[in-house]
Backbone:
């Protein structure tokens, strides 16, 4: 006779105890130091942008889930990671409506509309940041609408400049900045909220590698590639690595599970190509936000990379099938 | 100490402390046994007995003409009560022979085969016949008929591997056999070496059993061509293909067998059964297993008659504790969950485990694949379990086959590490069944 206390399922009957929610909590924890540094330097601006982004992320997620008819639940917490990352990519002087717009693009469009967690093609945070820049006209229009409602700060050229991102890297290029490696490594405010301290980003990133939530291959390949190519093009590799959100991108955006290759060799290739694009953008195209654009471009190639970098199966002498 | 291993896998908490140091106990014969006529891959046996017939311990009660099959024997002296279909461990109803155990005094009456002490004089084929007649099947868990593995068509073995890894958590029966039946293992090895002509024998043991390693090393010293190799404690080290890779650095090709790379793998329990069948004439009518897990009151290693209801084994071990949510036959990574404890112990039953939710996790709806890649890092067959899962989930059997569904050894590491609690083994099994159905 069947004993109703006993559950019958397929093996295995043990679990490692890992969960998506726990991994996402770890990512939030890994971003903790970065967040604290930005709060220390940018005070209320940082607090406002971060809380608005998180709130927007949750609200947009709820709306998207309702439209899709999925159960309403905060679930895995990935939406909080997206919200926080969007905020950390914003310039400290960005208006709160920019945070709303960027987060809505990230969660609503890049994540939920383009497939939902697991199937989205582009890194949501990078997409949100890039969207604000590409749709800058929309951002300004939004600001004007809000300004007429007396809901925002006056837009000065300085603020606009800050929003489009006059990062230390850009100033450096124009010869307007003199800063030591040491300053950049420990803390140098001026870029996006999350770009202030290289040490904080490294610590968070290495924690995620240690916890096996991310693989070392992507950040190692990406950073290594930036060092090699910038040196080849006669640019200072250390400034390239320590500025412009490179470490934020390398550890927290290019490593996004869903939007990066799953093969070992693919991860290396992906990182190397992002690094190459970053250097090309920075050296030849005078572009800001080279990191998010490079990541987004390579995101599009992930299925191809996965296909051409497959490992051989156990016992297979050579790859007979790649499709 | 060099530790060999394979690519992939995970270290699963071993949970072997509760029973690793407990000597094997004998379980009393049950009042009734039910011996299924199909216990493994291959053709079912047909019953050789009738209801009401008296049978002796060791008497053959089922056999078939097919090559891939093994006969079954009565584990008790008693009377045939029924020949009927009953539920067995794999959730199927299978025909078998129910036998009422006779009085204790009768149990000395046996129908064993002739014992052969000068087995060196026998031709290999004669020994293979004895192995078949004794109903031997792999005792590691899969219970593949032993004589089939010993009969390569035109392949030659250069290496015989004796599998003492026992990589499944909780199980300690092979550990105990390595310690308590060391000499029988060596005898079994010598016979298997004679049969196969293998020039080299390697006993592979995981490094979490140092006492077994020492005992085995002492026992094989002085025997030319025999060695003990220490393996990293890493699941699934004891899976046949992974063990061959770890010890010989040879990879069994997809769809192939160990014999394709000149290797033959037998479990330590099987080696003992070979020794007992040849030198004692004893068919496979009992086996050693571990009854354990946090839900068992008094975990133990026990010698049990084939056909004993698992409820008897659990009762011997003090019964189930409150809070047990899963009873597993076999190891926790590959075993079969049971909700009917009347099912019998079969040749492949390496363990009976009672687990609770602290180990199994709470049953939750699985999530979508987030491509975290943990399964890819863990897969010892170097497949992409994530893609196997998503293709099978969508019923795309062609792509699941292209992804290597048939190469999956169902070790379960992918599902074990999956943060989305995806039932990847179930997905693969569904894909395999669909692919095989389509091939017919």
Residues:
């Amino acid at each position: 006779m069947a004993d109703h206390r006993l559950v019958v399922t397929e093996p295995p009957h043990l679990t490692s105890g890992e969960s998506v929610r726990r991994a996402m909590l770890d990512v939030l924890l890994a971003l903790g130091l970065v967040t604290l540094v930005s709060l220390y330097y940018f005070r209320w601006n940082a607090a406002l942008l971060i809380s608005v982004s998180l709130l927007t992320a949750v609200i947009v997620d709820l709306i998207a889930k309702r439209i899709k008819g999925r159960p309403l639940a905060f679930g895995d917490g990935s939406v909080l990671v997206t919200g926080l990352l969007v905020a950390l990519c914003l310039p400290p002087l960005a208006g709160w409506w920019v945070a709303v717009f960027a987060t809505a693009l990230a969660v609503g469009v890049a994540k939920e509309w383009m497939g939902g967690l697991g199937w989205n093609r582009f890194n949501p945070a990078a997409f949100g940041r890039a969207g604000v820049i590409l749709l800058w006209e929309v951002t300004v229009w939004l600001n004007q609408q809000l300004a007429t409602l007396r809901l925002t700060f006056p837009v000065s050229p300085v603020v606009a400049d800050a929003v489009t991102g006059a990062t230390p890297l850009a100033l450096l290029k124009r010869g307007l900045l003199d800063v030591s490696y040491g300053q950049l490594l420990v803390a140098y405010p001026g870029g996006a909220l999350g770009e202030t301290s290289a040490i904080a980003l490294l610590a968070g990133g290495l924690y995620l590698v240690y916890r096996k939530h991310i693989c070392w291959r992507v950040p190692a390949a990406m950073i290594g590639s930036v060092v090699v190519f910038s040196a080849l093009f006669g640019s200072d590799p250390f400034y390239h690595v320590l500025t412009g959100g490179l470490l934020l991108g390398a550890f927290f955006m290019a490593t996004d599970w869903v939007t990066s290759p799953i093969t070992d060799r693919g991860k290396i290739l992906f990182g190397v190509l992002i690094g190459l694009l970053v250097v090309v953008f920075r050296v030849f195209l005078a572009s800001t936000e080279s990191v998010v654009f490079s990541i987004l471009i390579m995101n599009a190639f992930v299925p191809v990379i996965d296909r051409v970098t497959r490992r051989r199966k156990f016992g297979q002498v050579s790859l007979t099938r790649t499709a | 100490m060099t530790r060999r291993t394979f690519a992939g896998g995970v270290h699963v908490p071993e949970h072997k402390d509760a029973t690793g140091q407990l000597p094997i106990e004998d379980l009393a014969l049950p009042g009734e046994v039910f011996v299924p006529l199909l216990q493994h891959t291959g053709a079912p046996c047909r019953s050789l007995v009738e209801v009401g017939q008296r049978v002796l311990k060791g008497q053959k009660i089922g056999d078939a003409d097919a090559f891939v099959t093994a006969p079954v024997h009565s584990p008790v002296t008693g009377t045939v009560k029924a020949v009927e279909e009953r539920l067995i461990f794999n959730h199927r109803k299978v025909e078998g022979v129910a036998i009422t155990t006779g009085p204790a005094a009768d149990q000395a009456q046996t129908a064993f085969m002739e014992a052969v002490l000068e087995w060196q004089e026998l031709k290999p084929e004669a020994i293979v016949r004895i192995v078949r007649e004794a109903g031997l099947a792999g005792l590691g868990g899969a219970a593949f008929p032993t004589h089939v593995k010993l009969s390569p068509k035109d392949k030659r073995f250069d290496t015989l591997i004796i599998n003492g890894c026992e990589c499944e958590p909780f199980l300690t029966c092979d550990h105990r056999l390595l310690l308590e039946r060391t000499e029988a293992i060596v005898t079994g090895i010598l016979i298997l070496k004679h049969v196969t002509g293998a020039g080299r024998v390697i006993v592979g043991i995981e490094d979490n059993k140092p006492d077994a390693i020492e005992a085995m090393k002492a026992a094989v010293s002085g025997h030319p061509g025999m060695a003990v190799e220490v393996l990293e404690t890493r699941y699934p080290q004891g899976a046949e293909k992974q063990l061959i890779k770890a010890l010989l650095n040879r990879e069994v090709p997809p769809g192939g067998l160990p014999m394709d790379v000149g290797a033959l793998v037998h479990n330590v329990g099987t080696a003992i059964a070979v020794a007992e069948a040849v030198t004692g004439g004893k068919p496979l009518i009992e086996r050693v297993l571990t009854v354990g897990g946090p839900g068992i009151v008094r975990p133990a290693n026990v010698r049990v008659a084939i056909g004993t209801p698992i409820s008897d084994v659990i009762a011997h071990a003090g019964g189930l504790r409150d809070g047990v949510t899963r009873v597993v036959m076999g190891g926790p990574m590959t075993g079969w969950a049971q909700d009917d404890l009347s099912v019998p112990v079969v040749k492949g039953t390496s363990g009976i485990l009672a687990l609770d939710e602290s180990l199994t996790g709470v049953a939750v709806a699985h999530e979508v694949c987030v491509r975290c890649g943990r399964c890819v890092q863990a897969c010892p067959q170097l497949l992409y379990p994530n893609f196997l899962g998503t293709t099978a989930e969508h019923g795309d059997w062609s792509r699941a086959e292209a992804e290597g569904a048939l190469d999956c050894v169902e070790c379960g590491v992918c599902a074990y590490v999956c943060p989305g609690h995806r039932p990847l083994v179930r997905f693969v099994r569904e894909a395999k069944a669909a692919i095989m159905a389509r091939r017919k």
